[in-house]
């Protein structure tokens, strides 16, 4: 009998078709401990006063009525953009190098990429405190070379924070890029150069457009991770720079203002999800472009 | 038409730019870890780099840093519990939604993965509000529940990826040869997805061990975890002991990573 597996219908078995029940435990777990808390967050954000006695949109009005809050939200979202763009600029060539390397070099490269992902965020951030501090490497180098008279203040500045975040989040960008770039058909690149395109032209006309799904996936993860990076933001950013995560933490733990903390969490969550969805749309559009 | 093998200005500049950027990226990735390792062997009281002289004194001082030891122990226990539960719940769910193209399966998949893109800090706060509204006191258990929500996606992702490589024809042949469902699972499905589950479990453990956003709200004084303890040390005093703890963590992580690479092909599972 010749039958392709595709159109073979599995004979009815006891238990067959009941595989979906295996998803029940996790579904129940998520319903209680993930969805319910988030719904509760919405409810709490709708209390008008911090004693939670009556409902109203006062917390949101309070948030959007103050220019200070707009600045915190804006600088957080923009911080994510800066980090994501720089991570892509450095991460892409690294992923490209991976596809051009031999197997041994590839394993070495992948370990260098994964190691920071698995080392504690506190440890990685701590490294930046050492590098950027008054006695740190950068300052020592600048003083030795005579490029600066006194140690520069690098820690607790936004540029220092961006540098640290780029390093901390780089693996999230590089891994999806490696995945797409290794799947890319090498014949296309050969065809492009055989037809007379130089490496730059091949890169911008063939490699880059074909790797758009990987770029979008990497940007998505990097963006979401860098706007919420509480530890790096608070240790390298210090007291002078305030971003949404610390703002939420302050309002909850120090000021016990739950409704306001919940409202700014909602605003933060919705803005981040908005950016993520926008990137996702771009990703879909890019897939269509490739298959067209 | 130019000879593609002859180096041109284009080839040269392309190689130069890509080479420079990727070297910079590699340096950027590797340097901080090395800096922390070297700093942890300092003899001085400040985080000066390079250290004025070297010693093991900060590692020795960890021996009676009971607060750090307690925090490390709590984090380890938490990681084990969280990984265990995440693997059971995540693998079961992966088996259910893995081969289904139906709407409900896609929907559940999106739901289970959403903790990865949602700002985890907002979830931490939501969890705190949930348990205190329900009148449940914060404990090791509530902390573990919060961690499981953010760790399950890793197990689910790697297990789903390895399930996708399982040829359905294998399951059908096993069944048509008279094997029961459990036997088929044990002898056909499990060997195929074992590495995926293993890699997922490893990442789930690391994500719990390193979790900040949930622990920030859910860990109380009795259940202090290592990352929060270290954050407080760094925030308040820049104690050099933090460098020694980091040194220990780096060595353990590298060791675990090499073992996982050998056993489960970790790097292939991550991509």
Can you summarize this structure?
Chain A contains 13 helices and no strands.
Description:
- Chain B: InterPro entries: MetI-like, MetI-like_sf.
- Chain A is an all-alpha fold and 292 residues long.
- In chain A, 73% of the residues lie in helices and 0% in strands.
- Chain A has one domain: Orthogonal Bundle (MetI-like fold).
- The model of chain A is unreliable at 1-14 (pLDDT under 50).
- With 271 residues, chain B is mostly helical.
- Chain B has a single domain (61-270), classed as MetI-like fold (Orthogonal Bundle).
- Chain B has helices at 9-40, 57-61, 66-97, 103-113, 120-133, 140-164, 168-176, 181-209, 213-218, 226-236, 241-264, 266-270.
- The two termini of chain B are 39 Å apart.
- At the A-B interface, α1, α3, α4, α5 and α7 of A face α1, α3, α4, α5 and α6 of B.
Task: Specify the CATH class of chain A.
Answer: Mainly Alpha
Terminal residue distance of chain B: 39 Å
Overall tally of domains of chain B: 1
This entry's quaternary arrangement is: heterodimer
| Poorly predicted runs of 5 or more residues of chain B | none
Shape of chain A: globular
How many helices of chain B does DSSP assign? 12
- Proportion of residues in β-strands of chain A: under 5%
DSSP strand count of chain A: 0
Q: How does the helix and strand content of chain A classify structurally?
A: mainly alpha
N-to-C span of chain A? 40 Å
Label the CATH architecture of chain B. Orthogonal Bundle
Mind describing the biggest β-sheet of chain A? none
Order of helices and strands of chain B: HHHHHHHHHHHH
Within CATH, the superfamily of chain A carries the name MetI-like
Largest interface here, residues on each chain?
A-B, 102 and 99 residues
Helical percentage of chain A: over 70%
Give the CATH architecture of chain A: Orthogonal Bundle
The dominant shape of chain B is: globular
Number of strands of chain B: 0
Keywords (chain A): Cell membrane, Membrane, Transmembrane, Transmembrane helix, Transport
InterPro entries (chain A): MetI-like (IPR000515), MetI-like_sf (IPR035906)
Transmembrane segments (chain A): 22-48, 68-96, 108-131, 202-223, 260-282
Protein name (chain A): Spermidine/putrescine transport system permease protein
